[in-house]
Amino acid sequence: MVLLSACVKNPITGKREFHMISTKAEMRLGKDSRDQIVKEYGLYINPPVQSYINEVGYKVAKVAERQEITYEFVILDTPLVNAFAVPGTVFITRGILELIDDEAELAAVIGHELGHITGFHAVKMLQKAFGYQFLSTFATIAVALYGPRVDDARAYGVLNQATNLVAAGFLSGYGRDFELEADRTGLRYAVLSGYDPEAMISFFRRMDCLHDEEATGIGIFLRTHPETQNRIAQVRRILELDPDLSARPRKTAYERKSQKEFYKVLRSTTAQFVDHFERYQEIIKSMPKSDSLHLGKIEAQSYLDPDHQVRLKVPQRWKL
Known about the structure:
mainly alpha
């Protein structure tokens, strides 16, 4: 039996944390969750666009702390406006690519998702959802992860529940505190990669303008994330405050050191930040527009999807 629990230093906060799941188990859960999400939404196959997303993704990932991870960047073939990360994989939908305006915004979105991975947000979500007592059974998964055979059905059961929970985060997100932390991390990654720091704000503003467009699924995305104005305000504070002043006074020495390095680049008179607007637009315009018709439509208390011959009626007090 391989024990999975360990005391780990969080590379974002510098604090030591107790994790019930090893990095190897975390990556296995990430792979299983990745496969489940891809099966649900499908891959968008377009080699030039995928090559471009990989180029930007690896450029941003190069400044991320967890360099022991092999990162993958996946485009999902759905008009839903969303981006999500599971351990080892960053998902970008066709819908969000159409919403993004330039390469700097893309870098900010990718940086945010990488922040979920480097901050161990999937691990923390599992520990919070299941509790340490339940996760102690995770030791049985060691057989499934490291051995050729599994005789204990509990291993499959726990692994299945954990995978389902992580994959379900595609629509539910990681929680508002983790989303704000990922914003801070993503902004730092984008700036250290040489991208315009204002891009995160411009993306948030455009996203907020679309909150009523049901076909894009933006409402779901916004409901599972912090208030957009709070996210913009946080970015503004980071970009405008002196590094020695803080809206969050209880910073660790590691966080203060990381922040000072970030500000050194941000305030440098020789630093050049780019957005590569023309290049991004050229790439995105080569993609056919997403067809949202296959999502079906809502009429009164019924959901209709003629392509799949589905009709779902909900009670009067329910909201579709």
